Every structure is written in structure tokens, then in C-alpha cells.
Amino acid sequence: MPGPGDVAATLARVTIRPRTPQDLPACVDALAQVQAADRYPVDWPDDPGGWLTPDDLAAAWIAVESGVVVGHVGLTGDAEIVRLFVTPAARGGGLAARLLETARAAAAGPLKLQVSSEGKAAIAFYERAGWRRIGSDRAAWLNAAGEPALVHHYVSP
């Protein structure tokens, strides 16, 4: 298992930059790793590239280490964080926080996001980072149990 120095060295080699159309296949590969590990998204989309590029997407960034995409975050025109993920091998060193900060720096004002109640690690991460839950409701899509997912809504600190 890597130690703190190993994680810091790895993070120092990670570059965060705007996503280009040419990055999409590598983003889909990274998403497949996340989906296999965490079931995010719950159901693999018919068009994963389209799923990573919702109609209201204003900008997206990727984290790259040694030419490999290891993280992704999107920001909608409504200042909502979407499609945030870090591959399992790149976790534990603050990369998700760096991706969030990149999106925050590009936005004017507070950000919002939604997370399924099944995303326990994500919920814990957002709450440790100071995000505040402002409500919950049921989604149109189904969770792992086949029920309408319970989605929590958060606002940035």
C-alpha cells in the first residue's frame, strides 16, 4: 500500500486541464474503472461519451497522470458540479478536492451538486469539505435496489 509520500509524489505528477473532445475516449475508459468499482453511474449508459457531456455542460476538466486520465469533473451553466470521479488507483490523495477546486475557480458564486444516498464515500467527502445538504428527493432513475434513487442536494461552502 502506498504511503503518504508516495501519494504526494503521485499527486505532484497529476495535471488538471480542460477536457477536449479528443480526451473523451480516455474519459470513458476511466469511467468504466469507476463503474466497475463503485457502480457509478448505477447503470452503464448506452452512450458514455454523451453521458459525460450533458446538454447543459459549460466546462469539463480532467486529471491526467503520465498521459492517463485519472479523474474528471464537469460544470453546468447553472453552476452545478456533474460527472465528478477519480479512478480507484488515483484515490486517497486529494485529487477529487483538486478537481472540485478547479471547477469552483471557474464559477462565479456558490456551486451545487447532487449525490445519490448510495454514494456514502462521496457524501462523507462533500460534508468533510464543508458542503451543506439543502434537501433530498427521489430521482427518475433507479438505484441498485431497483427503486427511485434518493438524491441529496448540496451547496458549496
UniProtKB/TrEMBL annotation:
Q: Name one Pfam family in it.
A: Acetyltransf_10
Q: N-acetyltransferase domain spans which residues? A: 14-157
* Entry-linked PROSITE patterns: GNAT
Q: Where on the tree of life does the source sit, at the highest rank? A: Bacteria
Q: Which UniProt keywords apply?
A: Acyltransferase, Ribonucleoprotein, Ribosomal protein, Transferase
Which InterPro entries does this UniProt record tie to the protein? Acyl_CoA_acyltransferase, Bact_Acetyltransf, GNAT_dom
Q: Where are the transmembrane segments?
A: none
Which one of the record's GO molecular function terms can you name?
acyltransferase activity, transferring groups other than amino-acyl groups
What is the protein name given in its UniProt record?
Ribosomal protein S18 acetylase RimI-like enzyme
Where does it sit, as one GO cellular component term?
Answer: ribosome
